[in-house]
Design goal:
InterPro entries: HotDog_dom_sf, MaoC-like_dom, NodN-like
Protein name: Acyl dehydratase
Structural class: alpha+beta
Mean pLDDT: 98
CATH architecture: Roll
Pfam families: MaoC_dehydratas
Shape: elongated
CATH class: Alpha Beta
Distance between the termini: 20 Å
Number of helices: 6
Number of domains: 1
Number of strands: 8
Helix content: 10-25%
Largest sheet: 6 strands, antiparallel
Low-confidence stretches: none
Family: Belongs to the enoyl-CoA hydratase/isomerase family.
């Protein structure tokens, strides 16, 4: 865990790779819950038998599920002290180069791309690469924007 004492210290780290988080196994239960929450019950995600015979040999997580796991995956990579809150502000770019099959383990790496002043604090832009264990291509590459309020 990389700890920044304040926003100025964070800003000084622009351009640096902040590290990698812990591995997380993607389960069928998570996929099913996400399907229920979003209404996306496509067979490739929730029908285990059909998905096993499909193009990936197993059910795959929704790309947006992988994206939604980013806060979990980066929480042990870095922290900034002295904040009243940090709020997801949005995304600049997102890609899903490889599917995540159920039972796979994923983890995130984070690179601090930029820190800019805004009215309530600072926007931190972090490039997050979600890797799949034993797979050459990442599951997700996303440039996240977080509002950090001192």
């Amino acid at each position: 865990m990389r700890t920044f004492a304040n926003l100025d210290e964070l800003a000084a780290a622009v351009g640096e790779h902040l590290g990698h988080g812990s591995w997380h196994e993607v389960t069928q239960a998570e996929v099913d819950l996400f399907a229920d929450a979003t209404g996306d019950h496509q067979w490739i995600h929730v029908d285990r038998e059909r998905a096993a015979a499909g193009p990936f040999g197993a059910p795959v997580a929704h790309g947006y599920l992988t994206l939604s796991l980013i806060p979990l995956l980066v929480r042990d990579i870095y922290t900034v002290r002295g904040l009243t809150m940090g709020v997801n502000y949005g995304l600049n770019r997102v890609r899903f180069p490889s599917p995540v099959t159920v039972g796979s383990r994923i983890r995130a790496g984070a690179e601090l791309v930029g820190v800019t002043d805004v009215a309530r604090g600072k926007h931190a832009v972090v490039k997050v690469v979600v890797d799949i264990e034993h797979h050459p291509k990442p599951a997700c590459v996303a440039e996240t924007v977080v509002l950090l309020v001192p």
